[in-house]
Design brief:
Length: about 140
């Protein structure tokens, strides 16, 4: 699907093509969860922000909920997506608007993925993807 240059990005059939086109990650890597925005967030945190992420997560998850420091992308397999989003926001790795998009999108995705009675059509899916990429993924650095 092609879209206007000013409104939304061009969509691709797979993550590898999109990521290569955008120049976000020159080396193809396996997706952590099949979610290109979350995978991009994890890649950016791993490459650029691990000290800040680990410092902040140590203050959020204490006692019985304590988590080991993250040292590589594989360590994020032990985390819930919502926890990673929470720590990134608390550590100022994502701003207020990006955090809102990530949280709202995760909630919408969960409504669509789990029995909830919610129904989504193709147009809603395309708008969801465009909104998530434009307003979150491309702003995560």
């Amino acid at each position: 699907m092609r879209s206007s240059a000013l409104s939304t990005p061009t969509f691709f059939a797979d993550k590898k093509s999109y990521v290569h086109f955008r120049g976000l990650d020159p080396a193809p890597t396996p997706a952590l969860r099949g979610n290109i925005t979350y995978d991009h967030l994890v890649a950016v945190v791993t490459a650029n922000h691990l000290p800040a992420f680990n410092t902040r997560h140590a203050t959020i998850f204490t006692g019985r909920g304590a988590k080991d420091p993250v040292t590589n992308k594989d360590d994020f397999q032990k985390w819930k997506e919502s926890e990673v989003i929470q720590v990134c926001y608390a550590a100022n790795l994502t701003g207020k608007e990006v955090n809102k998009v990530l949280v709202d999108s995760l909630n919408t995705r969960n409504s669509a993925a789990h029995p909830s009675g919610s129904q989504f059509n193709k147009l809603q899916a395309e708008q969801y993807i465009s909104h998530l990429i434009t307003n979150a993924m491309l702003k995560i650095t």
